[in-house]
Amino acid sequence: MQPFEIALVPCLADNYCVLIHSPGTGETAAIDAPEAGAVRTALADRGWRLTHIFTTHHHGDHTGGNQALKAHFGCSITGPESEADRIPGLTRTVTAATPLQFSGQDITVLDTPGHTLGHVTYVWPQLKTAFTGDTLFSLGCGRIFEGDAAMMWSSLQKIAALGDETIIYCGHEYTLANGRFALVIEPENDDLKTRMAEVERLRAAGLPAVPTTIGTEKRTNPFLRPQSQHIRARLGMRGAPDWQVFGQLRQLRNKA
What we know:
This protein has 256 residues and is of the alpha/beta class. The chain has helices at residues 36-46, 60-63, 66-73, 149-160, 175-185, 190-204, 214-220, 229-235, 242-255; strands spanning 5-11, 15-21, 28-31, 52-54, 76-80, 92-94, 100-102, 105-111, 120-124, 129-131, 136-137, 140-141, 167-169, 212-213.
């Protein structure tokens, strides 16, 4: 039996909650809880009971189900210390220095600010999986609401350093729109063209284009590719620092 089972739960219009279940202990964790109803249904369908919620950041479309799920299941809710007063139902705060475990397995907490100042990413080393919330998306990245471009670029670099085989679950299904933007920015990228054909097939069938991997994102996601000479030439930024190229990409994406 696998040590963990993972289920991707669509919520609201385009959010994802990710459930992680340990058959050995019966514990089940949710990465973010956008809404209670969809999460409860997914749990009931699988016969799982929610014991933990790990919150990536304070936005309501990631925390909207916290209170109702906590009231129903008595689960703990963990979230970033610097956003403690903005996350409903919080029972434990964490920083990058906080020892954290789920079902006997260590979890690494990465500080990944930019989208919000306290945003964190949860990494399960045993699963070779990272839960990136609204920092890194499939073929995209989150808007910069509370930080700046240099901060967000630094956060993305932390995630990219996890290793190409690392599986990435993100907080939204934006892959198709992100990919269309990416093709405008780097139409020469054959890996991107191949990936977009697969994304279009999946989405047309009503299937998620998540999870992805770090290696796939490095090859196809323009927000991890500011070093690309094609991108730099298209933006007229051949000699600019990577973070500035990234920042210009984010501004263009905001207008797309």
